[in-house]
Amino acid sequence: MRKDSNSVPLLALVQEKLIPWTQHCEDRLVLACLKQSALRLPEAVSATAAKPLGKKRSARRRKAYNHHIVMEQWPQEGQETLRIPMLWWVIAGELQLRLGAYYLNLKPGYAVLIPPGVPHPSGVQYDFPNKYCDVFIISPRGRQMQCWVTEHRNGKVQQTENVNVLNTMLADDLDRVVEEMFSGGINSAAITCNLLSTIWLTLERELRQKRFVEILPSVSNAPKPALHDPIFLAKQYIQAHLHQELTLQNVAQAVHLSRTQFIVLFRQQTGQSFVEYLTELRLEWACQLLRETGWTVHHICTFIGFKAPAYFHRLFRRKVGMTPMQYRQTANSQQDRK
After folding, report:
1. Is the separation of the CB atoms in 91 and 17 below 8 Å?
2. Same domain assignment for residues 260 and 146
3. 238-244-247-250 Cα dihedral, nearest 10 degrees
4. Phi/psi class of residue 93: alpha, beta or left (left: φ > 0; alpha: ψ in -120 to 50)?
5. pLDDT in tens, 209-261
6. Nearest to residue 66, comparing CAs of 203, 211, 232?
7. Which terminal CB of the chain, N or C, has fewer other CB atoms within 10 Å?
């Protein structure tokens, strides 16, 4: 569930740049629009016209791993529209980002929020005209948040940090940022800054506590990462919905596999059945809650998805070797000695 890596560069980036920059985000954040004329730009940001996009194709019938989030594509220009928002924050260098029929020119410390339906560069093959640019990007993946840093050097693209953060509230917060920026109502700028601060502070905490799944870095000519693997996606889906009712059927549907395909592939890649894997994760979570909270055993049992407390007690004792209360007392005693 958690990698040993502590993602130090990404954590430092959040602490040293993103959190301080967000204090004045009303002067640093641009909401991308379909038309250049609709943009509201800070003084340090400019936009220039680009050629209209050519022939597009619908992604509705595509069977790629991300067909459920891609709406339309323009293969000739390398542009696409998504059903999810993306936030691009320039870390170093200058970014000339094509958004459909115009380029947005951003300096370090400035960001663009790309709402669903606005064309932008597709995949990891970002065609930046600049010779040097580093960009931090976040975007929801299911109920998790994918965060990655893209380095562009003389036509070569590399992802140096790429993680999926397991906190399900980050996606909701980013959706609220989009809503506030579109509304433009009273206090919307202040609310937007507060929401972004919440996102970065939450992200800092999740990185510190290693509640993320690390995705191996990829370069422009490298094979696609394990993110495309349906069982990898299934594990992420399970993590995000661990406290809810999960069945083999609904997880298989979420990653677009038949029940039979899912059973076979899951056993091949994990060495466990779906139920064994799910039970192990929930018991691991129960142990963490017993150590770190003062919640009652009954509340923990319900919270992590067990309907019958008696079954939870029997299962916990069989797997851990002691009752939940004995485990908590032992963990507290060890902590006191430390």
Report:
1. yes
2. no
3. -70
4. left
5. 877 777 644 333 444 444 457 888 788 778 777 777 889 988 888 777 889 99
6. 232
7. C
Q: What are 124's two structure tokens? A: 């990891």
Residue tagged 């004792």 (tokens): 317
How far apart are the C-alpha atoms of 275 and 257, rounded to whole Å?
17
Q: What is the pTM of this model?
A: 0.64
Measuring CA to CA, how many Å separate 325 from each of 91, 289, 304, 313, 338? 48, 12, 16, 10, 20
Last residue of a domain, one of 176, 204, 223: 223
Which pair of structure tokens corresponds to residue 156?
A: 């070569």
CATH of the domain at 317: 1.10.10.60
Mark whether 213 and 289 lie in a shared domain: no
260 and 211 share a domain?
no
As for how many domains the chain has, the answer is 2
Residue 318: is it exposed, middle or buried by C-beta count within 10 angstroms (0-12/13-18/19+)?
exposed
pLDDT single digits (tens) 58-70: 755 444 444 467 8
Burial tier of 308 (Cβ tally within 10 Å: 0-12, 13-18, 19+): exposed
Distance CA 174, CA 141 (A): 12
Within this chain, do residues 21 and 151 fall inside the same structural domain, yes or no?
Answer: yes
Per the CB < 8 A criterion, the answer to whether 92 and 68 are in contact is: no
